[in-house]
Amino acid sequence: MKVKVLEAEQQTLDYEDYEVGDEFITPMITLTETHSVLFAGLTGDYNMGHTCEHFCNELSGDIGGGTRMIHGLLVMSVGVGLFQRMGVSMYLKQGAYLGIDRWRFIAPIKIGDSVGARVKVLEKKVFEKKPEWGVIRFGMTITNHKGKVVQAGEHVVAIARRDQQA
């Protein structure tokens, strides 16, 4: 197992470059009101917990408690984006996103919080009917700037195999 801290864009990895147990740590990004407003506009999700400061001020505890929350799906997407922009995802190579499994929203993320991802290779396998393709299951944990886990789950991707290309 290797832990790789990703601080700058790196060369894209192929299926063969991943080993089960490899871990990647992305840089963090601060999520702003602009991120939240743009996401609400794109998705039509204008839930008051994301759009109304006064509503959130009246909530108690972690949910609300003073400021609007960032959309959970936005945070998940940012986690994938952080991983992708580091060149360790299949998007810059021939590949396909197959799905998301066991995803959980564990704690709220508020405007002004920073998040980063830790990604681990959980499983690799070759398609039996199409040996030119491999499937990788990645576990992803997203933490905030305080080190608290806010989301976690798995992403499954198909990546063309280097040793099977013509």
Characterization of this structure:
The chain is of the alpha+beta class. It contains four helices and seven strands. It has helices at 33-43, 48-51, 53-57, 72-88, and strands at residues 3-5, 23-25, 29-30, 95-105, 114-126, 133-144, 149-160. Strands 1, 2, 3, 4, 5, 6 and 7 form a seven-stranded mixed beta sheet that branches. The longest helix is centred in the middle third of the chain and has 17 residues, at 72-88. The chain starts with a strand and ends in a 6-residue tail after the last strand. The model has no long low-confidence stretch (mean pLDDT 86).
Short key terms for the protein model shown above:
166 residues; alpha+beta; Thiol Ester Dehydrase, Chain A; seven-stranded mixed sheet; 7 strands; elongated
Instruction: Classify the oligomer.
Output: single chain
Report the end-to-end length measured between terminal Cα atoms. 30 Å
What is the CATH topology? Thiol Ester Dehydrase, Chain A
The residue fraction in helices comes out at: 10-25%
CATH level 1 name: Alpha Beta
Arithmetic mean pLDDT: 86
Secondary-structure blueprint:
Blueprint: E1 3-5, E2 23-25, E3 29-30, H1 33-43, H2 48-51, H3 53-57, H4 72-88, E4 95-105, E5 114-126, E6 133-144, E7 149-160
Parallel strand pairs: 1-2
Antiparallel strand pairs: 2-5, 3-5, 4-7, 5-6, 6-7
